[in-house]
Amino acid sequence: MATESGTHGYRTEHGEDFGRTYFRQLGDFAVSSIGIGTYLGDPTDAVDEDYYDAITTAVEGGINMVDTAINYRCQRSERVVGEALADADVDRDAVFVSTKGGFVPFDGERPDEPGKYVKREFVDTGLVDSDDLVRGSHCLAPDYIDDQLDRSLDNLGLDTIDCYYVHNPETQLYSNSHEEVYDRLEATFARLEERAAAGDIRHYGVATWNAFRVPESHDDYLSLREVVSRARSAAKAAENTRTHFRVIQLPFNVVMADAFTVESQDGPDGKQSALRFAHEAGLNVVTSASIAQGDLAAEMPEEVAEQLAGETTAQRAINFARSAPGVTSSLVGASTSEHVQENLDAGRFDPMGANAFDAVFE
């Protein structure tokens, strides 16, 4: 697992290569403000090889935040992360590794009949109760998450996962009320608190798409205040002295800045943005879709681009995401070493200051 000494040693080794505040604090750890994501790509050996090279380049070059999920590329992304970390010339305790559970994963390749596969492998075996399965693909039941966490540990070849996310819990709202979803989250958080106490995970959180950045009237909305409250209750139920709920993940980029602009969360003095709430609650924020899954690598609003440092459009987009107040790290999907190098080079520029960032929205 990542350690304080390992990650701070990594920062000491690489810090002078990068700009101001490139490394930031996540609990006791020093983590790069640019992370590598592993979502995109076909589930093939060729893509595995590219990811292996990309991840190795990243962790050896100054990125020590690695993000994946069990359902990404039919479990192949987790497996190649594990292989790359084992072989890279970097100590395991220097790298912060996150994965996610919630979506039912395929194994190695997409089956011809996904519905039949899910029924055979998950429902008929008793691993998933059909009443807990939403849209035929999503489950948050504690026993199921337990199983998925074990599979992720095996896929990654790790004894401890640094952050385990409950993946897109808002998916449950397609079939359940908000109160039911909060109850399900609390039950799963209690199980994750137990796994944290056992040393299988260091922290946990929620990785979302819409939940925290949309208005309260939106069908996918979840209250961050309520989620935090349920995590605290879960810690108490597990007899832990403090909650291990530490991180939220949400999309943030130039064209999806809702986490900063939409005041949908209940703060002590009224409505506030998800980023502000998270900061005041002591939560770390990791952003996904930092270059809009590649769209911002080609073009971004000129009036914003001219205020950002970077030699390429992609670098300027990355530096926008990691300039947002309260953001710890911005994930960028990269399946080639060339893209990783471009992302690393983005970190050699300073992010925007708070006043300059605010001015973008005036």
Q: Give the class-level CATH name.
A: Alpha Beta
User: Radius of gyration in whole Å, from Cα?
Assistant: 19 Å
* Mean pLDDT across every amino acid position: 96
What structural category do the secondary elements indicate? alpha/beta
Helix content: 25-40%
- In the CATH hierarchy, what is the superfamily? NADP-dependent oxidoreductase domain
Strand content: 15-25%
Give the second-level CATH assignment, the architecture.
Alpha-Beta Barrel
Describe this structure in words.
With about 350 residues, the protein is α/β, with parallel strands linked by helices. The protein has one domain (about 5-360): NADP-dependent oxidoreductase domain (TIM Barrel). The chain contains 13 helices and twelve strands. The chain has an eight-stranded parallel sheet. A two-stranded antiparallel sheet has the order 1-2. A two-stranded antiparallel ribbon has the order 9-10. The radius of gyration is 19 Å and the shape is globular.
List the helices and strands and how they pair.
Elements: H1 4-14, E1 23-26, E2 29-32, E3 34-37, H2 45-61, E4 65-67, H3 76-87, E5 96-101, H4 114-123, H5 142-156, E6 161-167, H6 178-197, E7 201-207, H7 224-237, E8 245-251, H8 258-261, E9 265-267, E10 270-272, H9 274-280, E11 284-288, H10 302-305, H11 313-321, E12 327-333, H12 337-346, H13 354-359
Parallel strand pairs: 3-12, 4-5, 5-6, 6-7, 7-8, 8-11, 11-12
Antiparallel strand pairs: 1-2, 9-10
Keywords:
alpha/beta, 8-stranded parallel sheet, 362 residues, 12 strands, TIM Barrel
